[in-house]
Specification:
mainly alpha; single chain
Length: 104
């Protein structure tokens, strides 16, 4: 218990910033109009693209001759980042289809 209290005391500023950003993010996202969801989804896809690039860099610098944590984290970043980008673009494409006029 003392270690947990010491951790919170040492990193109280970082914990405060994280908690504040969580509440701020929830407030901002809950007030976004429906028209802006598609551009925000595209922005989130761009961030996931950066995660994919970071995963490629981590895997490229990992020691491939043995099992390492950096190799596993890099592969997980590649898998989850790719899933997020593909899924995000699929959702964005489906949302954009709703705005097209239907052919008779």
């Amino acid at each position: 218990m003392e270690n947990i209290l010491q951790f919170f005391f040492t990193y109280k500023e970082a914990i405060f910033i994280i908690a504040l950003s969580i509440f701020l993010g929830i407030e901002v996202i809950s007030n976004v109009p429906a028209v802006l969801h598609t551009p925000l989804m595209s922005g989130a896809n761009a961030i996931s693209g950066v995660i994919i690039i970071g995963g490629i860099i981590v895997v490229g610098h990992a020691d491939l001759s043995r099992f390492s944590v950096s190799l596993v984290l890099g592969i997980l970043a590649l898998i989850f980042g790719t899933l997020n980008v593909v899924g995000g673009f699929a959702v964005t494409d489906r949302m954009l289809e709703m705005f097209k006029k239907k052919k008779k």
